[in-house]
Amino acid sequence: MAGNLTASTDDIDAFANSIRTQHDSLSQAIQQLRTLEHNTSASWNGEAAKAFTSFMEIYFSQAARMNDQLQETADKIAKASGKTTDHDQHSAKAVSAVIHNMTLPN
């Protein structure tokens, strides 16, 4: 049996913001590593240096793509939170309209 997820829009927004914080931290870590790689490569010559630089460029490319996906995930979660709020408001209006139009016996 599937479980039910209960989360307020504030909870969902907080989760999206947490993901954004992780994205920002990861961006900084990638930049710091890129600086270290650049400093290492600047004083290193030869085939091993070329292989290392090539490997690191692939790594940085993949890390950037992964981090972009993290940001996109946060954006999608935040967007879903807004849709949930819109849906709740729409449902509340629909229920209010039904109640308003009901004719109950005295």
UniProtKB/TrEMBL annotation:
InterPro entries for this protein: ESAT-6-like_sf (IPR036689), T7SS_ESAT-6-like (IPR010310)
Transmembrane segments annotated in the record for this chain: none
Classification via Gene3D superfamilies: ESAT-6-like
Pfam family, one: WXG100
SUPFAM superfamilies, A to Z: EsxAB dimer-like
Assigned protein family: Belongs to the WXG100 family.
Protein known as: ESAT-6-like protein
